[in-house]
């Protein structure tokens, strides 16, 4: 079993040159996160979505990533963005410092259970009661290619859904209930889900799961900076 240090090394080298393709859903974002919200883009990479948030009119956006190489790339490609490299928890922000947090395809890049739990728990600390976590990730795929891929690596990694790529990356797809469980354990309640297809960095098509979850502890009568909408969950 490879260590967390091995996984992180990929994002300081080969992984830092990748072009990310997982898209933001502006309609879903707009339904729950107003333009004045304080937004944390955790696992921001080179600031692709951080920049898109700013372009959409979000004026208080902070991007954070564990990879120094990706943050350096982001500062070159998007000068002026508020990007920070943070390799350890806790992050240097006060409790409830943000109204919303994005977690886009971060858990796919973190194969270990404990590390995944730590990430979502930290976002539970940082998002204020009544605030929103917008998670988008890749669940377990049911096509022949991915079933064979998962089966090939399950003995090595001990978890069905973890797989390796030819360029040295280790990734993980999840049962949808695991993603929901991580969110709930961190103190969020799932309020909406949406599924759809996305293009992966290697040019394949995969199904994705988007989750909007509200941080528990708010006054039900408080309108706050979030708004609920109808569910897209099947």
In brief, what are we looking at here?
With 234 residues, the chain is of the alpha/beta class. The chain has helices spanning 4-12, 26-32, 48-55, 68-77, 113-126, 144-157, 176-185; strands at 38-42, 60-65, 83-85, 98-104, 127-137, 162-164, 170-172, 188-199, 205-215.
Structural notes for this entry:
It is globular and about 45 Å long. The strands form two sheets. It has a seven-stranded mixed β-sheet, with helices on both faces. It has a two-stranded antiparallel ribbon with strand order 6-7. The termini are far apart. The chain has 234 residues and is an alpha/beta fold. The chain contains seven helices and nine strands. It has helices at residues 4-12, 26-32, 48-55, 68-77, 113-126, 144-157, 176-185; strands at residues 38-42, 60-65, 83-85, 98-104, 127-137, 162-164, 170-172, 188-199, 205-215. Keywords: Methyltransferase, S-adenosyl-L-methionine, Transferase. Pfam families: Methyltransf_11. This is Class I SAM-dependent methyltransferase. GO terms for molecular function: S-adenosylmethionine-dependent methyltransferase activity.
Q: What separation lies between the terminal Cα atoms?
A: 36 Å
Q: What is the annotated CATH architecture?
A: 3-Layer(aba) Sandwich
The 3D shape can be described as globular
**Average pLDDT:** 92
Order of the strands making up the biggest sheet: 3-2-1-4-5-9-8
- Structurally, the number of domains stands at 1
Radius of gyration: 17 Å
Please name the fourth-level CATH homologous superfamily.
Vaccinia Virus protein VP39
Helix % is: 25-40%
Q: Give the tally of β-strands.
A: 9
Structural class comes to: alpha/beta
CATH class: Alpha Beta
The largest sheet, given as strand count, sense and whether it forms a barrel, is:
7 strands, mixed
What is the element string, with H for helices and E for strands?
HHEHEHEEHEHEEHEE
Q: Helix segment count?
A: 7
Q: What's the CATH topology label?
A: Rossmann fold
- Beta percentage is 25-35%
Uncertain segments are 219-231
